[in-house]
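Each letter names a residue; the fold follows as tokens. Both lines appear below:
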Amino acid sequence: MTEYPDIFKKENLTKEERKCICNQIMTTEIHMEQLILKHFTDEDFRKVWKYKIGGGVIGGKACGLLMARKLIELNLPEYAGYLEPHNSYFVGTDVFYRYLVLNRCSELKAKHRLLKEHFQETEELTNRLRNGVLPDDIREKLGEMLDRLSASPIIVRSSSIMEDGYGNAFSGKYESIFCMNQGSREERLEELEDAIRRVYASVMNEQAIEYRRKRRLLDVDEQMALLIQPVAGQVYDHFYFPVASGMGCSYNPYKWMEYLNPEAGMLRMVSGLGTRAVERTPGDYPRLICLDRAQASLRTTMAERHKFSQRQVDVLDLESKKLCTKPLEQIISLLPAWQKKMILSHDTEAEELLAERRVYRNVLFADCQGLVNNLDFVHMMRDLMKMLETAYERPVDIEFAVTSPAEGVWKLNLLQCRPLQAVQSGQVHIPEGVDGEFLFDIRRTSMRRSKEERIDYIVWVDPQHYYEYPYSKKPDVARLIGRINQHFEDTDYKLMLLVPGRIGTSSPELGVPVTYSEISQFNSLCEVAYDKAGYHPDLSYGSHMFQDMVEADVYYGAINDNSKTRLYQPQLLKQYPEVLGELCPAQPELAEIIKVYDVSGQNASLILDSKEGRAVCRIKGA
């Protein structure tokens, strides 16, 4: 975006000069710095400078994206024809500093670092960040960037120096804002500036602050860079979206079927924008793909495959200039035949039943089966992630989108890459013949590593009372769990949470709508089936909340009412002290729904055996 500085005009940079450039424009984080210096050429650094706006570094997310693309270029040239070219821009961390100063935020930001959780002016600081003005020279550079980009949608993403690194992921903690990028230059620039303000303001959102607090990062100066990317996709009528999107893990931390190989990695895919692949969406089910057995499915019948499929599609509406959700049926009619084959399947059983009544029509559902059947795609995703895992020396996760501009042609757009926390398994032994001490004994429902961990308190939500509680009041249950969570902040107590249905759903009729900040102190979480009220676990593999649990080494499991659950005996808890009233006094009806059992001193523990795919909660007694 600007003229190259003199150092870039040298024909060959020295080792010291390359390190200096890396630290000035990309990162000072030691692991990423080593990867960059090992693989980047002088020309690669020049390209970063060319697409950079403002001073400072480009942040963790941008570095991860560039590093992953470079590693693919070097190590997997055979897949070059499948990859979309890189066309992102970067706004450096110094622009954030200047924004803070210009809008009188610097003192409040410094005060927040000093006072930490006792800071009382969060709303004031958020308002100033949300409604500030950008420096004139940066506005000019942003306008030049828009002139270079075509008038198709873009996305403004956070790229803080702590984000997507070896220590912290910050999955979903900061905003990512879509810009339709339509209309006059002034309208496009105004929309872009507003998106930047929203991302800057997200450094003060509750989830981000709780994440930093949990990892003792409130003292660290948060430096926010931005990654501005064209949105992968194409125009369908007045909508814009890719054929499919998703996330992938090079190591599948949770083995949901007995014969899956965790080392092969997994994908979580949806049709349309990837927002539905990384967020918990009520009534919708992304396609889970284990890359050693791509065809294997939890759903064995056609009826189950249809029931547990995607019903809504996230798209950009270029007319209303909004991200919106549309029924699958509306989107199907816009797709060319070859794209339908990539993401849709026929419910042949339903079609046959209709035909018996002389009703002849297609019954389609979205499960990305065409991509699952595409061996080139499956092999590429597996090879790509294993190569990145080798280079990063630990498992990675990625975000991607797939487009198909013509029949028989598909392209992958790699949007993000970050290393995952690597934690070693321990040696465990689950005793036999002590069923009377097991709260639960379950198999093949979420397993990360073998370990044994003590449990001090078990928070149990009564499924029948929760079901009978008025719908409008159900979020109060989540808020009380948040108060219990807060009570145990900065303590060494180990907590387990058992709730009916889904954890973190936005639909209270499906489960308990807690946020991550309301359960951040729990070291084990279980979704419990309760058929009588229609509560069914649905572990959200690959979502942002899932990534938080993986990173924090939290056990996340499901107590189903099928063969995967050998034992579940919640009545055992009644012999231990119930202490909700002592911890967080609540109104009587909530005290009927939420029970907090004190099992400290009772030799209670969670035992995970990843080899057997088995999880046991044992309470030996005093």
User: Anything to note?
Assistant: The first strand starts at residue 52 and ends at 53. Residues 415 and 500 are 35 Å apart (CA to CA). The two ends are 68 Å apart (CA to CA). The chain has three domains: 6-230, 234-419, 435-619.
